[in-house]
Specification:
Blueprint: H1 6-13, H2 19-31, H3 33-54, H4 62-73, H5 75-107, H6 115-120, H7 129-153, H8 159-174, E1 183-193, E2 198-199, E3 202-212, E4 215-216, E5 220-229, E6 232-233, E7 237-246, E8 249-250, E9 254-263, E10 266-267, E11 271-274, E12 277-280, E13 285-286, E14 290-299, E15 302-303, E16 307-316, E17 319-320, E18 324-328, E19 330-333, E20 338-339, E21 343-347, E22 352-353, E23 358-359, E24 363-367, H9 377-400, H10 402-411, H11 415-438, H12 443-473, H13 479-497, H14 503-526, E25 547-548, E26 551-552
Helix pairs in contact: 1-3, 2-3, 5-9, 9-10, 9-12, 9-13, 10-12, 10-14, 11-12, 11-14, 12-13, 12-14, 13-14
Length: 555
């Protein structure tokens, strides 16, 4: 008896034989045990091959599956260690930097119980937070109304009832009180407020010479070369001028960016200023605190609270009812000076104190040390903390956006495009955000863009760390192996950035490189792509010369 060959059996399994031949094969396998065994083996292999081709993911071997399960169970320890390092870094950052500055600013008379309220609700230079809060309230009301409409739409079937509810909501919005105070803008060679004039709201003054002789019940924003305040300002004064003189009365605060400032009148609250020379004359009085960044300060008048100064030279001949904290070059305290609080001075030269000066306590002097930061031990402690923070940051981002992170790492190998686009993003985005902040509509967009840009500066270093890790350990597209390479690469990148002299340039290049890679990944994400099964347009051959739809025309 002649046995069947494998090709015949395979064609029988795939139903490729004709009906008569298939019946012969079926009858033969019933009588022949060897051919029947061959047919069953080939049929089993065919099913396994078909199943393997249809499966999207190949099953892991037993050892790899066990390792993956153990790694998944141990992830809680990894997250615990990571968050522990992050909490340590946050505590060290707060205790060493934020808390001392918070204490100094609170003692300087800014008020506020915490740093957040100080930065947001008592901003030194921007008075638009009230409008911003109103905008957020409106957005919250709109969001709440959207949820209410979605909720009642399922329960209120009649259109008249829904319309009545929406009409009541619109009426409530219209009954909201409008802003009580308006603003006014004046421009010219010489602008100001006349002696017999009263401004009910805020006023913006732009000119070469700015004079305020009357009364302003709101805030004053002045931009000019020579500015003088002789009248009465019931709000705050924001000054950007070459020279500023405060001879009248300011009930609020004075915030100034000037070259020279002289105070001969009265300031009801605090003064914050960036100047070259500041003179608080003997007739001048500041009821609050004085926070100043200056080259030379001559204080002959009266200060109601604390003095915080970063400058070159302070000459004190007046009265300070609070404490003094100074960091600069030289402190001179004359015989007529009176200080009710402690004096802390960190400078290059010992303070010159007159024996006749009336001080609550001797000057606490500490000589300023100019040493490279890498010579101090806490510098390396902070580097370790920052490294742990970067690894945690990258771990969270790679888990939240694995595909985008992998695309950014892949795009970083396009070196020319990454560096070129990185330069554009590094300098162009903050400029665009600043321009957007000028408009009220774009304020939220500008602030959000700036924060995203700032976060991208750190994400860029994480991306470059992943690239360096792939150079050392090989490429991968899986998430956890990529995170491991990112951690190894970040160690190398952070070590390179702490090299004296060259570290800052290396960090700058890393940021450019990473920003460009992230921008390329975003560009690829937002680029429209054609679907794979989209049919192409039919080919239409070009017509010969002198041819129209109706046929060939004579030349």
């Amino acid at each position: 008896m002649q046995h069947l060959d494998e090709m015949t059996c395979l064609m029988y399994i795939e139903r490729q034989l004709d009906h008569a031949r298939a019946q012969d094969v079926s009858a033969h396998t019933q009588d022949c045990a060897a051919c029947r065994t061959l047919l069953r083996a080939l049929e089993r292999e065919s099913r396994l091959l078909t199943r393997a081709m249809l499966e999207e993911e190949e099953a892991l071997p037993a050892r790899l599956a066990q390792f993956q399960e153990r790694a998944r169970r141990s992830m809680q320890w990894i997250w615990t260690v990571a968050f522990g390092l992050a909490a340590t870094g946050v505590y060290a950052l707060y205790s060493n930097y934020i808390r001392p500055w918070q204490d100094q600013l609170e003692t300087a008379g800014f008020g506020g119980s915490n740093l957040l309220s100080l930065l947001i609700f008592q901003g030194a230079l921007w008075k638009g937070w009230e409008s911003m809060i109103k905008l957020l309230e409106v957005l919250a009301l709109v969001t709440l109304s959207g949820f209410a409409v979605a909720f009642f739409r399922k329960r209120v079937r009649r259109g008249s009832a829904l319309a009545l509810m929406l009409a009541g909501f619109c009426a409530a919005m219209l009954l909201q009180p409008a802003s009580a105070m308006a603003s006014e803008t004046r421009r010219g060679e010489s602008v100001g407020v006349a002696p017999d004039e009263t401004i009910k709201g805020d006023i913006f003054l732009f000119g070469e010479r700015v004079r305020i002789e009357g009364t302003v019940e709101g805030d004053v924003f002045l931009f000019g070369h020579d500015a003088t305040v002789n009248g009465h300002v019931k709000g705050d004064v924001f000054a950007f001028a070459q020279q500023l003189q405060v001879n009248g009365q300011v009930d609020g605060n004075v915030r100034a960016f000037t070259n020279t400032m002289a105070i001969r009148g009265t300031v009801g609250k605090n003064v914050l200023t960036f100047d070259e020379v500041v003179n608080l004359e003997s007739t001048g009085k500041v009821n609050g605190s004085l926070t100043i960044f200056v080259e030379n300060l001559n204080l002959d008048g009266s200060l109601g609270r604390d003095l915080l100064i970063f400058g070159k030279h302070l000459t004190l001949s007046g009265t300070v009812d609070g404490a003094i904290q100074m960091k600069g070059n030289l402190l001179t305290i004359n015989s007529s000076a009176k200080v009710a609080g402690p004096i802390r001075f960190e400078g290059d030269k010992e303070p010159e104190v007159s024996p006749q000066a009336k001080l609550a306590s001797p000057v606490d002097y500490r000589k300023m040390e100019h040493r490279p930061e890498y010579m101090e031990g806490h510098y390396y402690v902070w580097q370790v903390i920052w490294l742990a923070a970067f690894v945690l940051f990258g771990l969270v981002l790679f888990q939240l956006m694995p595909k985008f992170a992998a695309e950014a790492v892949g795009n970083s190998e396009r070196y020319g495009a990454s560096f070129g686009l990185g330069v554009l993003v590094l300098f162009g985005v903050p400029i665009a955000a600043l321009i957007a902040c000028v408009t009220v509509v774009g304020l939220f967009v500008g602030i959000s863009t700036f924060f995203l840009w700032y976060a991208a500066l750190y994400f860029a270093q994480v991306i470059v760390g992943a690239v360096v890790g792939q150079w050392l350990m090989g490429r991968t597209r899986e998430t956890w192996p990529l995170i491991g390479r990112m951690a190894v690469g970040l160690v190398i990148v952070r070590l390179a950035t702490v090299i004296p002299e060259a570290g800052n340039w290396i960090k700058f290049g890393v940021i450019l490189w990473g920003l460009g890679a992230i921008s390329l990944a975003l560009y690829d994400r937002f680029q429209p792509t054609l679907a794979a099964n989209t049919p192409s347009a039919p080919y239409t051959p070009s017509l010969p010369p002198n041819t129209t739809v109706g046929g060939i025309q004579p030349a």
